[in-house]
Design a protein that fits this description.
Belongs to the MlaA family. Keywords: Lipoprotein, Signal. It comes from Zhongshania aliphaticivorans. By secondary structure, this protein is mainly alpha-helical. It has one domain. It is 59% helix and 3% strand. It has 13 helices and 2 strands; from the N terminus they run ααααααααββααααα. The termini are far apart.
Length: 250
């Protein structure tokens, strides 16, 4: 089961469904940028390629087939409800990191979302906080906290079972794990099963995209590395909102 959980965990960094990933720009902003190869900091390429190859086999022969099966047997409304439950239970990650970033207003909004969705939304299955109270998601993580205090991404790093990442996001993944309530409210092996289910439902919508992108690239490692690093470098060059990196002071 630990191996299964580790394989499913690879979705977290590859598609960066949560706070460790670079933010995507809006459609009306510049999205096409180019960089010299020297801009990509990848001194561990030999190690990274080996881990990428291992992860790639795990994707294609374990994670993707499981994800496709999950989507096939799970109705869309149920899939949405499951996603909502996991997003809601991880609210403490966002709340604590907003406080660490001196953003009490966002921390308060995230706390209100958690309370509303846990009660009115029936353990987070539904999202009345957004639908009825206009409280949108404000997701963040320890990687964003490190960036808030000036930490760079360090270097590109492919982690076993985690996938494309960097030193900062890798540190963030570890720190956020200890803020995740699931290990504290359930015992082993149940907590591993639940967290594996979380990674599965998060990755499932992206499974076919991975296959498509991989099939179109001559060198999958370079393709996914460059895509990941371009997102980081783009966000360093184009800031969608200056307020995202400032304390809200409220």
């Amino acid at each position: 089961m630990l191996i299964f959980y580790g394989v499913i965990s690879s979705s977290q960094a590859l598609y960066a469904s949560e706070a460790t990933a670079p933010q995507a720009l809006n459609d009306d902003e510049i999205t096409v940028v180019s960089y010299d190869e020297s801009d990509y900091n990848d001194p561990l390429m030999g190690f990274n390629r080996a881990i990428f190859a291992f992860n790639d086999v795990s994707y294609r022969y374990a994670l993707i087939p499981i994800a496709k099966g999950y989507r096939y047997i799970t109705p869309d409304p149920v899939e949405t409800g499951i996603s909502n439950v996991f997003a809601n239970i991880k609210a403490p990650i966002h709340i604590v990191n907003h406080l660490l970033q001196w953003q009490p207003r966002k921390a308060g909004s995230s706390t209100a979302r958690f309370l509303i969705n846990t009660t009115i939304g029936i353990a987070g299955i539904f999202d009345p906080a957004a639908a009825w109270f206009s409280l949108p998601k404000n997701e963040t993580g320890f990687s964003d906290t490190l960036a808030h205090y000036g930490s760079g991404y360090g270097t590109f790093l492919v982690l076993p079972f985690v996938g494309p990442a960097d030193l900062r996001s890798g540190t963030g993944i570890v720190a956020d794990y200890f803020l995740n309530p699931i290990p504290y409210i359930t015992e082993q092996p149940d907590s591993s099963y639940i967290m594996a289910g979380d990674k599965l439902q998060a990755f499932a919508p992206q499974a076919e995209s991975y296959e498509t992108l991989r099939a179109k690239s001559d060198d999958p490692y370079l393709f996914f590395r460059n895509m990941y690093l371009q997102g980081i470098l783009r966000d360093q060059q184009y800031q969608p909102s200056a307020d995202n990196n400032k304390p809200d002071n409220k």
